[in-house]
Amino acid sequence: xxxxxxxxxxxxxxxxxxxxxxxxxxxxxxxxxxxxxxxxxxxxxxxxxxxxxxxxxxxxxxxxxxxxxxxxxxxxxxxxxxxxxxxxxxxxxxxxxxxxxxxxxxxxxxxxxxxxxxxxxxxxxxxxxxxxxxxxxxxxxxxxxxxxxxxxxxxxxxxxxxxxxx
Amino acid sequence: xxxxxxxxxxxxxxxxxxxxxxxxxxxxxxxxxxxxxxxxxxxxxxxxxxxxxxxxxxxxxxxxxxxxxxxxxxxxxxxxxxxxxxxxxxxxxxxxxxxxxxxxxxxxxxxxxxxxxxxxxxxxxxxxxxxxxxxxxxxxxxxxxxxxxxxxxxxxxxxxxxxxxxxxxxxxxxxxxxxxxxxxxxxxxxxxxxxxxxxxxxxxxxxxxxxxxxxxxxxxxxxxxxxxxxxxxxxxxxxxxxxxxxxxxxxxxxxxxxxxxxxxxxxxxxxxxxxxxxxxxxxxxxxxxxxxxxxxxxxxxxxxxxxxxxxxxxxxxxxxxxxxxxxxxxxxxxxxxxxxxxxxxxxxxxxxxxxxxxxxxxxxxxxxxxxxxxxxxxxxxxxxxxxxxxxxxxxxxxxxxxxxxxxxxxxxxxxxxxxxxxxxxxxxxxxxxxxxxxxxxxxxxxxxxxxxxxxxxxxxxxxxxxxxxxxxxxxxxxxxxxxxxxxxxxxxxxxxxxxxxxxxxxxxxxxxxxxxxxxxxxxxxxxxxxxxxxxxxxxxxxxxxxxxxxxxxxxxxxxxxxxxxxxxxxxxxxxxxxxxxxxxxxxxxxxxxxxxxxxxxxxxxxxxxxxxxxxxxxxxxxxxxxxxxxxxxxxxxxxxxxxxxxxxxxxxxxxxxxxxxxxxxxxxxxxxxxxxxxxxxxxxxxxxxxxxxxxxxxxxxxxxxxxxxxxxxxxxxxxxxxxxxxxxxxxxxxxxxxxxxxxxxxxxxxx
Lengths: 166, 751
Ligand code: FES
Ligand code: FES
Prior knowledge:
- The complex is a heterodimer.
- Chain A is an alpha+beta fold.
- Chain A folds into 2 domains: 2-75, Ubiquitin-like (UB roll) (Roll), CATH 3.10.20.30; 83-149, DNA polymerase, domain 1 (Orthogonal Bundle).
- In chain A, 31% of the residues lie in helices and 13% in strands.
- The longest helix of chain A is centred in the middle third of the chain and has 14 residues, at 100-113.
- The relative contact order of chain A is 0.20.
- Chain B is of the alpha+beta class.
- Chain B folds into 3 domains: 7-211, Aldehyde Oxidoreductase, domain 4 (2-Layer Sandwich), CATH 3.30.365.10; 217-299 and 358-433, Aldehyde Oxidoreductase, domain 4, CATH 3.30.365.10; 306-351 and 444-747, Aldehyde Oxidoreductase, domain 4 (2-Layer Sandwich).
- Helix content of chain B is 28%, strand content 23%.
- In chain B, a hairpin with a 2-residue loop joins strand 6 (150-153) and strand 7 (156-159).
- In chain B, helix 15 packs parallel to helix 19 (722-736) and helix 18 packs across helix 19.
- The complex binds FE2/S2 (inorganic) cluster (2 copies).
- One FE2/S2 (inorganic) cluster binds at residues 36-39, 41-46, 56, 58 of chain A.
- The site of one FE2/S2 (inorganic) cluster has 12 residues of chain A, from loops.
- Chain B: InterPro entries: Ald_Oxase/Xan_DH_a/b, AldOxase/xan_DH_MoCoBD1, AldOxase/xan_DH_MoCoBD2, AldOxase/xan_DH_Mopterin-bd_sf, N-heterocyclic_Hydroxylase, OxRdtase_Mopterin-bd_su_IorB, TAT_signal, TAT_signal_bac_arc.
- Chain B: This is Isoquinoline 1-oxidoreductase, beta subunit.
């Protein structure tokens, strides 16, 4: 039995502790907002936060997250009101949308660490997130907008009681 | 609006049949013209006179508009409703987009060939105008006033003299009882009255994407569903000799191990030979797959080596080929020329690698099959699933999910066929999940190719002879198993339609047998042809001592319509009528001139920097691209890109812009780093670490210019791609004097 907190809600699941968090989220907990793109930490589609740090859930065994805090795209806000989501809306960023959960989770982490990032910081931080549709210019613009709109404090609050059932 | 489309009132049940939801008080159906794909003649051709486009208004005022095409980031689920809603004068906040099921009544639903808007623009406007006319008539009757005294606005009908209003909700039932007017009696908005067409409407799916509340093919989950992962033969045409059935079953949560039915050539959209492991979750299926220990019978293609193969094509391509279009005597004129240029260009195999690997879920029950899939081609899926299961296609229902990118990969329904076979065999819902490795190693590849060009110039730098040859394995091989040379459909993509005004010209092909599944990928053969022509014009310009832009203008000649048929080539023109969509040199020149004006590509660049340009017409749209690079310490950095597109009338400029941005980036991936190599018949790459695609730090500043036009809408999804690679290598040449003729650039420089 592995226990952890998912979007501020306690969960416990009884599966192979070697199973990567990604598959536990998607197949066992029914949280499909976190996407599968490569399975080997190459694309960033599966990015979630573990104790506030961005991680690739496709290579994170469940054993390693026991008793920790996991937050996913579903926990960012119920209504796309988070400043990063709002900036994404403003720049009409997504094309197919598949990579965007991961992009947004990486961008939120980036802005927590660097509230006012320059181009190079954005490039370095975001280069682990592939977008095959090619939304990079808009992602970059949206990150800059979000930085501007939340210059003072960028401590986001997670949506409450958003999560899957085991 | 000249075609005679029939638009009629239909029942709620009709709506249900095509969409899975019941229609409202007022339902209209229309007939779209049928069509066949521009290439791949063996794909399904659907003709039908039944209803296929719908709008329905509920008693609460919701306007349901059916989108019968697949959404994969191009914005079609927004673009189609924008057109209908505009003529209808609907309230955009009341518009609900309903995804159509697979049905041949829709005409082709193949979301490929960049034609969703271009094929349906007029019919969709007629549809909206018909509904509006009926609502106006219903209001006139209710009030007992002349229809000429009422007008529609923002989801209401307004009585002009008094200003009183009735909402669409209040009128839907009454309007549903009226007979629709004839198309010739309809009134249409003038472009200055458009409220949605031509506006950057936000994508209807955007809020869900931002909160992760989307359902892609990979996201489907049904009760009691099994997750399947399939180990497929590394060589196309190979088959399973032996495997260990017991070992995977010892892995926790693995439920069954099934050998896929053995298939033979042609490959079509059949399953590949292999073994499936089914489990109660994806991870367990993947673990089980690792211990299958399959021994393969590799078959004839195990000797295929892409390096050796490309060297053979390069040898063949410099010899005289089979002419497909000719004028004058290009050989004699070349011999007589004062100056001569010749060059051979090559491209490797490429794979689509959409962010969402293919996935399909199927249920088989009581002789019926239902499928949920991220497919670009629901009807072909329906037909191929029916064929694989041996049931009639009326017993197969296809639900189209969102697509996490398509680029042509998801036009092939092989993954749905796999899911259906496994659902039939297990009697349970089965989701087949392709891993990234499966996607890279078992795709339908963009063909490896070689092109050879020769030009002869006179003393004034005028081109008097033009010779071009191309060789690549054909997509048709996928359907026939025997085709061994490029086909007319593929040669119509930027090769046989070369728009130059040259007296002596010869366009030729060479043989190129296929050894892997070949498929269409975003802009298809325009990729290699656009690269070769765009590069060669740059080389010829240098020989003539003029700018590349000047050479393009010289070669294009006077404003005129180019008809390749007059020189013996059966040009297919993307399946469009030549009267509506001819090749116009004026439009090619216009995008080029605009590009030079807007980009500054004719200005001197800094140290180790250079500009490169190219121009290309494809999918009946016109695109020019300028790229600026820096070449330093054996590394190429792309600094900025500008593109100009003339796609006729544009429905949603923001989505056109985003498609252009995406096309620049897709083209950069091809130019800089895209390469699939094959040894002993098997693909050597496996994931994004060795099949690299552009990442954010490699992405330049991108500027898009859209030509304002009232011409019929052309394609948007693909036409941006073909000029990119040539603009990049030309820029590298102007920055470094190194001419790259073999893509990708990463073979020569770090990127
Ligand atoms: S799926 Fe985890 S990084 Fe690609
Ligand atoms: S939006 Fe499609 S992969 Fe990024």
